[in-house]
Amino acid sequence: MNLWKVAWRGLVFHWRSHLGVLLGATVGVAILVGALAVGDSVRFSLWKITESRLGSVQLALMGQNRFFREALADAISAETKAPIAPIIMTKGTATHEEESGRGALMAGNVQFLGVTNKFWAMGNVAVLTIMGEQEGVAINESLAQKIGAKVGSELLLRVDKPSLLSREAPLSTLEDATIAFRLKVLAVVDEARYGRFSLEANQIPPLNIYLPLSYLQSKLGQESRVNTLLVGQRANKPITSSETSAALWKNWTIADSNIEIHEVPATNELALTTPRIFLDPPIGEATVHSINDAKGVLTYFVNEIRAGERTTPYSVVCAMDGVLVPINVREDEIVVNQWLADDLQLHVGSQVTLTYYVVGAMRKLETHTSKLTVHSIIPIEGAAADPDLMPFIPGLSDKKNCRDWEPGMPVDLTKIRDKDQAYWNKYKGTPKAFIHLKTGQKIWENRFGNLTSVRIPRMIQSHEFVESCLRQALIPASVGFFFLPTYQEGVQASKNSLDFGLLFMGFSFFLIISALLLTALLFGFGVEQRTEEVGTLLSLGISVRKVRGIFLYEGMVIALLATALGAQLGIYYTRFILKGLSTVWKGAVVNSVLYFHLERRTLFMGAGIGFLVAMFTIWLVVRRQARRTPRELLMVEAETPVFTPTPRRFTFAHGLLLVSFLATLLMVSAGWMLPKSQAPEAFFGAGAFLLIAGLTYCRIRLRKLDEGAAEQSLSLRALGYRNAARRWGRSLNVMSLLAVGSFLVIGVGANRHDPNDIATLRDSGTGGFALYATTTLPIYQDLNTKEGQESFRLASKDTLGANFTPFRLKDGDDASCLNLNRAPNPRILGVDPNLLVATNPFSFAQLYKQMPPKTAWQILEMPQEDSNQNEEIIPVVGDANTITWALHKSLGETIPYSDEQGVTRKLRVVGILGNSVLQGNLIMAERHFNHLFPSQSGYRLFRTTAGECWHGSSRTSQRNGASKRVGTSKGTWLSRWTYS
Amino acid sequence: MRNSHVISSPILDLRGIYKSYGGTLHSTPVLKGLDLRVSEGESVAIVGPSGSGKSTLLHIIGTLDTPDKGEVYFNGRDLTGVSASELPRIRNQEIGFIFQLHHLLPQCNVLENVLIPTLAGDAQTREPVQARAIRLLQRVGLGSRLKHRPGQLSGGERQRVAVVRALINEPRLLLADEPTGALDRTSAENLTDMLLELNREEGVTLLVITHSTTLAKQMSRSLEIQDGRLVELEAGV
User: Rounded to the nearest 10 degrees, how much is the dihedral formed by the CA atoms of A819, A823, A825, A828?
Assistant: First the structure.
């Protein structure tokens, strides 16, 4: 005979009462294991998706709107022995006209991929011949599904036409900003055939169109040029970005930076120019610093040169230092050529006014003027007769007749006189005036650069020497060419994703607690039913420790059995949930496929924790039971703890009731006074205290009932009260279970918001904006103007009175709750803080510095004290969920972020917004955005206040599904429209 | 008929025992300065009306309860000063309990029930005890029911099992609380005979609480609780 045997006998004899305990503990373990299995499954699925979307791609160079030689891929590949696929990757739209004639289905944000056989090798799949006998495209399954296309469907495709000159740069034109073409679908590529290819860390399948590289190159006018390099796995050892960067630098040519060197016969110089008009600042700086006697030139097209009443229209003025503008010319002085002096009747000391356009936000042309004094008048000869000082400006340089000018800005051709035409015929773009470079840069510098060319004396340097110097001085990364460790980032993003195991454990907390309460309750019942047995054992001299041991042995067997059953049940539960998420609830995970996966370690951990928690619960029950004396346990009437009437009127319970009730009132008051974002904390705080107060009150009432039981007349009701009071602990347990359950149900219900309720309020999650619009291709026009709206056929009664707030957008990882990965490079929005201050939308939950609520958005402009010349810290604002869950950051922390030059910048979280539609993005001031991402032009995200007729027509159009027909997504009150 | 026995030194000595129940407000005194002296080998019956404090007295003697006031000497040792961890050992080794409602563990068979008290000791001491248990059970006529569960026994048989369980650790004092209270006449007589036989042959001191005058008369001494104190009854009462 031993304790184990007694325990075993008890276990078998009391199996009915143990069954309930077993079920309770099994449920607890199942929830724990299930929650952890969900975490494992999500991590595994994200890793699998990373593998599937990247194939063997390890590194990627993304030039975006900068194109370079396709041959660079082979050169780097030969150097590094790693396979490299040159591709074109650009965004566009795809429209499918349904055969049924129901209308067109359009998809925005479509990834156009110009690929070669090397691309398919990256995906470790068989080569897909897209254009063999007939022209056509391959599309992936997601796109096919979205636009309802299949093999044979004809698609209207539209992509952004790359322009060397930014569409926002002065003198640029919006003509031919996009190109459209029709092609038939030749193949639908599934996931197994590299259909998920994407460089963005997101589990949501991308919308892909695959075209032959040469075809896309020819469509975009980028023959033999690409904008992306994919570096694959090397056979013998892993490839690193430093190796590829070194190889890139070695094989880099100035043509890859869109730089041209040509001779200037007029001055016997070499000129460094770019079709982008403005030299990238790093290129200008590298040239001036690396080559002796190199001089920067900034040439600008001015609208008018005025002297008193006399004017000369549309002239070229050049800012440069040197022979034409000697050192004795002051910064407020100008050197004019003889022709201009004659035209305006100028003499030394005359005052002239230059009038010119500066491109502001939304391509708004702002007219600026500068007043200068004539320093000297020079003849049009030698260096002053150099038409090459004017860069090639499309629509201007290529026109023989001034009256045919189309320079991308308003030109009043009627102002052009015959003498102007004669000058153009004779001297072309030869500048009519010259100013100091410093003065020119002060008035004409923009985010695209502050030089239009660099001049190098031909006598000193040869063409080859200049190119060689430049290649050495210019790091490709400084103009946006650098390799990102895409695979590593992808794996990190999936590994460091939100821990769904812990999240589900949090969600299931109430269930786990309930299961444990149930376990405790049922085990307690079982032990209480065996009170006599405990009393007998104790009275026979068996120590309390050994008696507890007997029950713990029994509990251990139950807990072990529950652990085994619960672990298995947890696995089934997870499989069931994942099956649901892949089928009926697939909308909840945005059509992402999740795979079941459970690490053995996780299984043991979940089961182990479940076992220990169940054992702890049982131990608590046994410990409580064995505290009673054997005499109490043996006496039947002693089963009910006897309340000892106390003369004290104010007991601990009364104190607790008072304190918790006061705390409830305090939390309710706080809920009224605190910002709305903190209302849930106040709600749950008040609820918790109210729960304590309520249970304490019940405890006091039960005591009163028991004390007064003798005085009550015998009735069914009184009997019920007595029964409830007799085992008050049990009664309180049941009350707690029901109270917690009811509270959670009410709590969840109370916190479910209908965004429509407060959507029009400025401090709501919508910011009071009625519409939220994203565009695939950038918009340059001001949509608040009639002209801007007409460009997109937006001018209607719906937009009457509506106000558009434009945001610049730098593509990146979606840092919203729709992306299960950790977002290593979140999307960035750039906005003019003044536009937000004017309307003061959204509400800040936290601010890094005290700001008046009305001007809180100015925090985006606030200089960071720890910034220095070498490292400027950029203030950013984000949605609370984005900052906390997707980025794992908090207020004041910094986020490392690579700018366009590959330089890691520090972004400081200076403001956290309450729940808002800005989730998934980081917002920075537009000027910082332009500084960090100068090549990102245009606006791609708009928030719009409601037009006068919005509430009527737009909602109706959403309800009847019209919005879907034009490529918008439904599901919220917000409409999205896609610019094509 | 009284048993003849040799009176030796007192195994039990209770002095001025007070005990009340019901807290401070509605306190009900049960024992009011009770004294009791029992010598080793004696058989003593304590009688009294219901609620007079008989069971309370037995619990105090058996270390299952403590007096509010007074001293309890067992074998010359003051139990009021004994630590809580030592009491179970004394209860297990020195005192045997027989309850009115036998309190057998329903999940264990007859032999196992008898061996339950041996669980207090270590495993090595249990082996030889098993033989003694079987011997005792055979002696009380239950040799053929070793593997039976309490539910399969009659009331008298269950009580006999309880007696053997009380004796398994060879206690010096056997406390019996209404041992025949729930038995029919024949079973009660058999049990009484058995207890007296044990008292005689094993030399175990017997203290019986009973309503049964028949049982009380067979003890060497009978005492009655009157107003919280013990009063010696004349022989033949």
Answer: 60
